[in-house]
Design brief:
Elements: H1 10-14, E1 27-30, E2 35-37, E3 45-46, E4 52-58, E5 65-72, E6 80-84, E7 90-91, E8 95-98, E9 104-107, E10 113-117, E11 124-130, E12 135-139, E13 145-148, E14 156-157, E15 161-164, E16 168-172, E17 180-187, E18 193-197, E19 205-207, E20 213-218, E21 224-228, E22 233-238, E23 250-256, E24 262-268, E25 279-284, E26 306-309, E27 315-318, E28 323-325, E29 335-337, H2 347-350, E30 354-360, E31 362-364, E32 368-372, H3 377-386, E33 392-395, E34 401-404, E35 411-413, E36 420-426, H4 428-431, H5 443-454, H6 466-479, E37 491-492, E38 499-500, H7 503-509, E39 516-519, E40 523-529, E41 537-543, H8 554-563, E42 572-578, E43 581-587, E44 592-593, H9 594-598, H10 606-626, E45 631-632, E46 641-643, E47 649-651, E48 658-659, H11 691-706, H12 723-732, H13 736-740, H14 744-748, H15 750-763, H16 774-782
Parallel strand pairs: 38-42
Antiparallel strand pairs: 1-11, 2-8, 3-4, 4-5, 5-6, 5-7, 8-9, 9-10, 11-12, 12-13, 14-23, 15-20, 16-17, 17-18, 18-19, 20-21, 21-22, 23-24, 24-25, 26-27, 28-29, 30-36, 31-35, 32-34, 33-34, 33-36, 37-38, 39-40, 40-41, 41-43, 42-43, 44-46, 45-48, 46-47
Helix pairs in contact: 6-8, 10-11, 10-16, 11-15, 12-15
Length: 800
């Protein structure tokens, strides 16, 4: 945060003249019925001195669109200072008219009204373009101003103009796109003056006034200052003293530019005073790259980008090696990796596909999840390479290694950053042919994710699962040394509720393993029809390879899993352990996974999504508190919640689940799970409890509420990319309608919508101790327990 220097008191008297009445100045009347069209942009409504003009300007060299604007008319480049309908460029054939009823009306070629100002009943007598750059509509009675462009600024203010109340300057989208951009300047409700991203309103530059701030004044002497309600000057923002010239010799304008910097420009009014070109007088913040937001997210540049200040003192955003712009037209937007991501469930196969690229004087602020002291740079590199959740590390001069998660936040290159950024990227042979990636998962990762959602139409996915190993280890112990041909189909295993099948029987049931449902890294799943009186349809998972594990302790764990029986858990029906063949048989879930329906045009209604949330909560409550042994699932996500024909949700894929002993409430283990759903404590070497499932459920609940993925790059506004942060922002600002979107059923049930959102925010708290148990989550969702107001899970300052 920054604060301008408070000027000496004598300046108050010198530079606070009363603003003159705009209508008292000379003007040229624009009478009723006057019209301007896009067919001839050389015709406009000028001010008396012709220094300003009101009319149409063509936008872009190859564009056919036009902008209704006010500009500096005597400058060659015709610098625009105001525009109407900036977010909707009008087509050729449009016109602006001061209609006979006294309104200023912009219409398209079909006569449809696009923009209008003034009231027919107000008695407007004329319009006028003033020499201040202000266009006014005045009444016939004492020339009282009914409307003026100065009250509705876009990104620029001029001498004689004030910003007060809820009036804001909004930057343009880019240097070539005049539509509304990412930054605002204005007086906040608490009286402070701030610069902040439109999306979050978390200021990156601020003048605090303890509530006394009122308005920004740009006076006729070329001074810009922040003023209190009693007329006292609080802060001098910029002055023309440095210009060494009077305002009669200079044009002035102050603009909030697309890069988030507010700049005061001057330009000589004649060539005798030097080149007629704009030069920067003052600007703030001085280095926007050093500005950090209050919450997670970027300021000057988007996610995964690096901000630096060029020789022209302007911020520049660059994608680091291996990354490309998500939107080529948004030069300060987000970058995305141009290589497949490291797959967390198969680290050993992917480590060799990555390398570390070093960046000097570079850092990303925020998103740290682990740090190590007194280590070498090579150790830091190798540690990040072997950790699938690590996308970069920063090695400091104090021999500290800071590991960063995705996405990378607040990147900057600055001489003060003496450490080295160690960026993990794909090797050359792994990036060849890689051109697009619409999510933080790679195309390979997406393919695997899509396959996962199909596998067994709702059965267990990861072939390398601990669950499978436990079953097979149990079988190995019980059937070691026996002839597998002696296995009798449908014979129950003593003490458990699963049955053994012969390989031949399953080969016949799957029609020679032809009806494939999906494939994973270690298994393929087939649809099968059992040869029994009911012709039961099941899903058969055929493992590609077997991994040997120790025997001790597995018998009890397998017995616990096999006895697990709940309507909201997918049921394991049987197995095959014959020679080299290892197969598992599950109940078949015809409808598929929640991901199949939720992320494809949201084919689940609001009431169905609520039911899925409650069903899933019940399943987790059973695992956590009602089982004979406590089970942590470790991978709750939409792909692992399956739906039967009645849309009853069932939890699947216990492949990386962790069992706790009778007297055990926590455990330590390597990071497990899926990016975006992994609880923060996984990254902090903290003991793991059932609260990691609560966190993952909270993310799933947000996805169910909003009908979208937890991370999406292709969104209208970059603040919507990370769902958890966007939903918390909307909740904080009481803008739930943005989350509900076009879901009319959800809007009609907005009180329940808000309650579910509050439950989700409780679930995703950074501290595990703040998260509720799944029993309380279930009761809150059902309405049996009231939901208290949750704290903001992101109310922390980014680490530096």
């Amino acid at each position: 945060m920054a604060s301008a220097v408070v000027p000496h008191l004598f300046l108050l008297a010198t530079f606070l003249p009363l603003l003159p009445s705009t209508i008292a100045q000379s003007y040229k009347n624009v009478s009723w019925g006057s019209i301007l069209t896009t067919s001839d942009v050389t015709i406009f409504w000028p001010s008396p001195s012709e220094e300003f003009a009101f009319g149409f300007q063509k936008i872009g060299n190859g564009s056919s669109g036009f902008l209704l604007a006010i500009w500096f008319n005597k400058l060659k480049e015709k610098t625009i200072v105001w525009s109407a309908s900036r977010d909707k460029i009008v087509p050729d054939g449009s016109k602006i008219e001061l209609s006979m009823d006294g309104r200023l009306v912009l219409t398209d070629p079909n006569g449809q009204e696009i923009w209008a100002r003034g009231m027919a009943s107000a008695g407007t007598a004329y319009g006028a373009m003033l020499d201040t750059g202000n266009f006014v509509l005045a009444t016939s009675s004492n020339s009282v101003t009914q409307w003026q462009s100065f009250d509705e600024p876009t990104d620029t203010i001029l001498p004689g103009q004030v910003l007060k109340g809820r009036t804001r300057l909004v930057s343009s989208f880019s240097d070539t796109n005049v539509s509304s951009g990412k930054f605002e300047l204005g007086v906040k409700d608490d009286g402070d003056l701030g610069l902040y991203p439109v999306a979050t309103r978390d200021e990156y530059w601020l003048i605090e006034t303890a509530g006394s701030g009122y308005q920004v004044v740009f006076n006729q002497s070329g001074f810009i200052f922040f003023q209190a309600k009693n007329g006292t000057m609080l802060n001098l923002l910029s002055s023309s003293i440095e210009a060494n010239s009077t305002t009669s010799q200079l044009y002035h304008r102050a603009i909030l530019e697309y890069d988030g910097v507010f700049r005061h420009y001057v330009c000589p009014k004649s060539s005798s005073g030097g080149p007629m070109a704009w030069s920067t007088l003052n600007y703030f913040p001085v280095n926007i790259c050093l500005s950090l937001p209050r919450y997670r997210g970027g300021v000057a540049c988007g996610f995964n980008s690096v901000c630096s200040i060029g020789t022209d003192r302007r911020p520049r955003c660059d994608c680091p090696v291996g990354y490309i712009l998500n939107d080529p037209n948004d030069k300060i937007g987000n970058c995305r990796p141009n290589f497949p991501e490291q797959v967390c469930n198969n680290e050993s196969r992917d480590v060799e596909a990555f390398t570390i690229h070093e960046l000097l004087n570079t850092n990303w602020f925020g998103g740290d999840y682990e740090s190590y002291q007194d280590v070498t740079k090579d150790w830091c590199k190798q540690n990040c390479l072997s950790d699938c959740f690590c996308v970069a590390a920063v090695y400091g001069t104090d021999n500290t290694c800071w590991k960063k998660r995705y996405p990378l936040l607040n990147g900057r290159e600055h001489p003060a950053d003496l450490g080295k950024a160690l960026l993990k990227i794909g090797r050359d042979n792994s990036t060849a042919g890689s051109t697009t990636m619409t999510t933080p998962q790679s195309q390979t990762g997406e393919k695997r994710e899509n396959q996962s959602s199909l596998i067994i139409s709702g059965s267990v996915l990861l072939g390398s699962s601990v669950f499978i190993l436990m079953v097979l280890a149990f079988l190995y112990v019980n059937f070691k040394g026996e002839n597998t041909k002696k296995l009798v189909p449908y014979q129950a295993v003593p003490g458990v509720n699963i049955r053994s099948f012969s390989y031949n029987e399953l080969e016949e049931a799957t029609n020679g393993f032809k009806d494939e449902l999906g494939a994973g890294a270690f298994s393929t799943v087939y649809k099968a029809v059992l040869n029994d009186e009911n012709g039961k349809i099941v899903a058969v998972k055929k493992l590609h390879k077997m991994v040997t594990e120790g025997e001790q302790g597995f018998r009890a764990e397998v017995n616990s899993f096999s006895r697990t029986n709940h309507k909201n858990l997918v049921q394991l029906l049987g197995f095959c352990n014959e020679g080299q063949h290892r197969l598992l048989i599950y109940e078949h879930m015809e409808t598929g996974s929640v991901a199949d329906l939720l992320f494809k045009d949201c084919r689940l209604s609001w009431s169905q999504r609520v039911k899925v949330a409650i069903d899933t909560a019940k399943g987790l409550f059973y695992l956590h508190e009602e089982c004979s042994i406590q089970i942590i699932h470790c991978d709750i996500k939409p792909q692992n919640v399956l739906l039967d024909e009645n849309l009853t949700a069932k939890i699947a894929d216990f492949g990386i689940a962790k069992l706790l002993g009778k007297d055990q409430t926590r455990t330590t283990t390597k990071i497990r799970g899926t990016r975006g759903y992994v609880a923060p404590e996984w990254f902090r070497n903290m003991p793991i409890t059932v609260k990691v499932d609560v966190y993952s459920f909270g993310i799933l609940l947000l996805e169910l509420i909003c009908c979208r993925k937890s991370y999406e790059q292709d969104v209208a506004n970059e603040n919507e990319m990370i769902l958890a942060e966007w939903t918390c922002d909307c909740y904080r600002r009481k803008e739930l309608h943005l989350l509900a979107g076009n879901d009319e059923e959800a809007k009609e049930d907005i009180m329940r919508f808000e309650k579910l959102l509050m439950v989700a925010i409780w679930c995703i708290q950074e501290s595990p101790s703040l998260r509720p148990s799944m029993k309380n989550v279930m009761l809150m969702l059902e309405g049996s327990v009231e939901v208290s107001i949750p704290p903001d899970p992101f109310s922390f300052i980014c680490s530096v």
